[in-house]
C-alpha cells in the first residue's frame, strides 16, 4: 500500500473571491504545490529536472469540489500516485482542519517529456517508490 504524503497549508485572503471563499482556480495551485513538495521531499527539484531536459507535464486535471475553504482556514492537501504505462495519476484530497471536512478531490494525470519525447524516467519510480502503486494495463 502506498504511503500518503501530507502538506499542511493555510488559505491566504487574496486567494478568496468577493464572497470570501477560495476561488476555484486556487485549488489547482494547492494540488500542484503539494506535488512539488513531495518531489522535493523525495530529492527532486523541478529546476534540476528541467536543466536535464526532463519535464513533468500535467496532461489532465479532474477536480471535484465538495466544500468551500475560506480565508485563513488551515487544510491538509494529500497525494498518492498510480503509475499506469507512461502516465502517473496523482490522487489528491484537500481536507479542512480542524473539522476534517473534505473540500476537494482531484486526479491529476502527469506525463514526463525526456528530451522532448514522452518517456517514463526510472528516477521517478525510484524516488516515489513509497508513494506509488503500479497498475498493469
List key phrases describing it.
single chain; 3 helices; 137 residues; Thiol Ester Dehydrase, Chain A; seven-stranded mixed beta sheet; alpha+beta
Describe the structure.
- The chain has 137 residues and is an alpha+beta fold.
- It has a single domain, classed as Roll (Thiol Ester Dehydrase, Chain A).
- 22% of the residues lie in helices and 45% in strands.
- The protein contains three helices and seven strands.
- Strands 1, 2, 3, 4, 5, 6 and 7 form a seven-stranded mixed beta sheet that branches.
- 20% of the residues are buried.
- The mean pLDDT is 94.
The count of β-strands is 7
How many structural units, i.e. domains? 1
CATH topology: Thiol Ester Dehydrase, Chain A
Please work out how many helical segments DSSP would assign. Answer: 3
* Residues in β-strands, percent: 35-45%
Task: Summarize the amount of helix as a percent range.
Answer: 10-25%
> Which residues sit in consecutive blocks of at least 5 with pLDDT less than 50?
none
State the name of the first-level CATH class. Answer: Alpha Beta
Overall 3D form: elongated
What structural category characterises the helix and strand content?
Answer: alpha+beta
CATH architecture: Roll
CATH superfamily: Hotdog Thioesterase
Task: Give the termini separation.
Answer: 19 Å
